[in-house]
Amino acid sequence: MFDDLRLPLGDWVEAGVDWITANLAILFDFVKSVITGIYDAIEYVLIEPPELVLILVLAAIAFLVRGWKMALGTVIGLFVIVLVNQWDNAMATLALTIVAAFFALLIAIPLGIWAARNDTVSTIVRPVLDFLQTMPAFVYLIPAIILFNVGVVPGIIATIAFAMAPGVRLTELGIRGVNREIVEAGSAFGASPGRILRQIQLPLALPTIMTGVNQIIMLSLSMVVIAAMVGAGGLGQPIVQSLQRIDIGLGSEAGLSVVILAIFLDRVTNALGSLQDHSPVAKLRARRAAADAPRPAVVEPDMVASPTAETEAAAAGGR
Amino acid sequence: MSEPSANGDAPIVDDIVVRVEHLTKVFGRRAREAADRLAQGASRDEVAKLGTAAVIDASFEVKRGEIFVVMGLSGSGKSTLIRMLNGLLDATAGSVDIQGEPVTGIDPKRLRAVRRSQVSMVFQHFALLPHRTVLDNVAYGLEIQGVERSKRLELARAVIERVGLSGWEHRLPSELSGGMQQRVGIARALCADTPVLLMDEAFSALDPLIRREMQEQLVELQAELGKTIVFITHDLNEAMFLGDRIAVMRDGRIVQIGTPEDILTDPANDYVAQFVQDVDRTRVLTAASVMEPPAAAVPVTMGPRGALKTMRDMQISGLLVTGPGRTVLGAVKDRDVLRAIQKGEHDLGTLVDASVPTVSPDTSLADLPELAITSGMPIAVVGEDDRLLGIVPRVLLLAALGNVSTDTSEFTIVDIPPAMDPQLVTQTLDDTEVSDVR
User: Fold this and answer.
1) Number of domains in chain A
2) B133 to chain A: nearest residue by CA?
3) Containing domain of residue A65, as a range?
4) What's the rounded Cα separation, in Å, for the pair B199 and B252?
5) B197 has a chain A CB within 8 A of its CB
6) What is the value of ipTM here, to two decimals?
7) B112 at the A interface (CB within 8 A)?
8) Which PROSITE patterns does the UniProt entry name for this protein (chain B) (predicted)?
């Protein structure tokens, strides 16, 4: 009985996109050239140097944030990528991920802060995020292609839209979750809202915000692979190829490379969120803090809250 | 620190620092309407549909150098009240001003200026910045005031030393015990160097022994620095110990404002009366509140015969003897006076035993029993210049204490110092018996 009724939603969207292409071409060209420029630069840095140099650099990063075990794992994992002949693709994917995650963070964190401080913004942003997060990822590729043509940029744009949501949510959650009394203390001593944000809310929300950063990076990586369908290079390309040719060999080699990259990125960003006591960076900081703060000469024994262990001092420095 | 009561310790200059007038706070979307109805005399329940009335028509004044305690159970509105004093919450109606500067109805920028210059706050759960060292936490107020770093750290170090935390400057708050964290909280508030200090249940999260210590330290600091303190608590003993004056709150209204003694001896209504039943009276009541007019005292000029006659008339065995200007010279006993009369001496002054116990009017009742027992004489209450104000006879003291034990569920024997010598007691009683026979 509803046969005659047809909601022309698709037509409207199409008309809207047409209008945008016709009228906002300058804006999109600008966005496109900015993103392409940044991507090319990063890809150049990642692909030009010999594999060994990059492997050592990435292993060094792993060592600094986490320790030698992580560094060893990184070296082994990256060598596997080299050995299955996916190195260039992997670096292209890494570059895509870095660019997409960077822009997603650039939008997500300020938006999250705004939403945390303003209930109206929060109410508006929430359904938008629901929409962005649940829309099937492929759908983003269609308008992206129309607006930016085939290539790297539509892939990155679609990735940004897809990966942004958890960053906004976790930033808002983190800031709203900061102990109310501590925020009150800031106001009670006459601090301005900006100062409270900088000195109290952001530092205390940092672990949650870093979880958001981690989520954004992981989602970017997964979306970047899908974006190969619109011509963004990288590990997505052999995967799409192998899907078309039912080439299980190629598919598993490229897939494994994605997994190795994912694990590396996840561990590194996680470690950044909570620099652990035994990471070399944390130890360095603890030593510097200890040098700044001479031990108390006399400590009344009954006033000691907890015995001063080496680990505590390290933990203090790491925070 | 040894003074059990804060009353009268601090020099209270009679000018008003915090003035609160008809302050009302209603939470809810129709708060203003509710506040108007409350002002017209509606009850809290009647406006419940419009909003939750947390504070209703509170008015009081806090004088310079005073510890003003706001006491009430949870839900009585005391936390809301204190948060309106520094504008953390907007008042729905009424006004607050601090040293003549309004806190209510001003723009945020001006409010921040008032907070920086006039009023700092200590929080129940300390509210220290966990990522900063003790030193940086204490200096926080000065940092916001824009004091240069080296200068503010120097000031902070001085305050840290004053609250007894030297050596802990570079630790993080999480490395400190609760009591020490709250000392940091107090140091932070003191370091901001504002005339007014708001303390929101500042000691409630601490365990009892530490709480006691902190209360004593606060009284000491206050006497030293002369801050004006508004202290919120739900603990009546704490209120009685700290408060120069106490406001008792119930269901958003202030039901009584008075000194601890007023509230104890003259409760405004049954609610307050019931509330104060549990308080440890000996720590609140003072010698002045139980002393009697000095009937059993004679001027030295009266001579031995006059003294003995007074004793016979009053049926007592001893008298206080006063000199010029009603200063206490000491006491005489009937035996000695009798002997002197038999020997024909005429100077009462030579018979006086100067070792009579004297106390000041604000000595707490808890300190009196030991004196009464060891001396066997009534205790003389003297003001400045040794002028005799009154006496606390032993019987009266026992009565006052007896009253406590019937009224109070938690009166413990610990308050009477255990250092009593049983032999002395017996001897004193013997003496009394002998003289009574005569």
Assistant:
1) 2
2) A316
3) 22-274
4) 19
5) no
6) 0.72
7) yes
8) ABC_TRANSPORTER_1 (PS00211), ABC_TRANSPORTER_2 (PS50893), CBS (PS51371)
